[in-house]
Amino acid sequence: MNLLSKSLLATSILLATAAYASDVSATTHATIIINNAQILPMDGKTQIIENGTIVIQGNQIVAVGDAKVAQGYSAERVIDASGKIVMPGMVNGHTHIGMTAFRGLGESGVENRLKQVMFPLEKEMLDRQLIRTASRQAAMEMALSGTTMIADMYYHQDEVAKAVAEVGIRGVMGETVIGFPVVDAKQPYGGLEYAEQFIKEWQGHELIVPAVAPHAPYTVSAEFLVKSKQLADKYDVPLLTHLAEFRWEEAGVRKFSKQMSEEQSVIEYLDSLDVLGDNLVAAHMNYLDEHDMDLVKQHNVGVVHCPKSNLKGANGQSPAWMMHSKGIDLGIGTDGPMSSNQNDVLTVMSYTAMNARTLHKDNSKFSPYELLELATIGGARALNMQDEIGSLEVGKKADIVIFETDSPNMQPNYDPFSTIAFSAYPQNVEYTIVNGKVIVEDGQLMTVDMAEHNQEWKKVTDKVGNFAKTLK
């Protein structure tokens, strides 16, 4: 080989090496690629991406679209979503998951379930162990049914937070402030001090957002409603409460608080205290008029509609459609497991439609797309988390649920929005991904030692069951 040939050969090798190095450097490492999916982005458009692809890098979505968006990426894991529906994880905007150990008690033959069953159970049974174990049980149920974010109000919220984080879903955890002694506060309103300590310990967690939760205006004085608001503002955390839930609520608040006038609604009362604000998340909202709704909109209050709980308890029918029409940030929730029993958002979607269609005598209220909107980005907006979760968009957290469509109840799948809103069961969830981590795979929870949990759960339910037999 002459000198020229050797030189040409060396040049060819260098060029080939450079081209190979260029190809390698052009390939970006991803954690998960989901392909061949029927994607419902829930990004404000009613679009469906057929044969779509999602690329996840760490805890974020870095690409969404057709198959071309995966070009230039390699992944540790590829999920073939052929024949499956992929959508954002669902948001349960109002829960009390620590009460799951009491689910099913006092369902019949009880005149006043609150006083005869719920209060005695909470007084005698609640402790850290029960709350932690029951919260884990509920968080598992939610993860398996495609819920990736919850907003919860209860006691010992540090224990609830531990359980939720262990399962691997997100949570806004509201420590309850209430005007009488409870399990974690021996003095009335002791929850306020507990809440501040809880916030300090958990603020900045990757899954948990600590919050303050004044129970309701009929159990929390004007002074402590204001103090709760001030605490939430101080630490820039959510403020969770029950509001306008009962027929008797206005009369009850006036009797309880001398600062609410005869002319005021409960919404106007909170407005007069400067408690309404964009960090307030108000659950239920069954009894409010146009002026109340305008105040809620004006102050950017988040609202969580709990139709199943309200209908089961005969507490009224929220004007949710009217709030939605006014552009109020509206999500949906299950409420506590003694109120709605099932902890899945899927069930609540159909109740939302039935509530509005019956109330307005119009079967066009809440289309399937709008129901999925409430269950995803709507709930995120109500919690002021719409920039992080609620839709499948580049830059958002990788909170994703994948539904199989092979089961008889999922067929035919002409309209995936309708399939999810009205046909899907929790058992149709095949994958749940939160913060880029697969926590449910092939319908099985991957994060909890089930044998250990079941031993703890049995001890709790045996104890509660034995005590419940003494209630009359």
Automatic annotation (TrEMBL):
Alphabetical list of InterPro entries matching this protein: Amidohydro-rel, Metal-dep_hydrolase_composite, Metal_Hydrolase, MTA/SAH_deaminase
Signal peptide per UniProt: 1-21
Pfam families found in the cross-reference section: Amidohydro_1 (PF01979)
CDD domains: ATZ_TRZ_like (cd01298)
Gene3D superfamilies on file: Metal-dependent hydrolases, Urease, subunit C, domain 1
Amidohydrolase-related domain mapped to chain residues: 85-438
Keyword hit for Transcription regulation: no
Sorted UniProt keywords: Hydrolase, Signal
Domain of life: Bacteria
Hydrolase listed as a keyword: yes
Coiled coil: none
PANTHER family for the chain: AMIDOHYDROLASE-RELATED DOMAIN-CONTAINING PROTEIN, AMINOHYDROLASE SSNA-RELATED
Family listed: Belongs to the metallo-dependent hydrolases superfamily. ATZ/TRZ family.
Name by which UniProt lists this protein: Amidohydrolase
Native source species: Vibrio ponticus
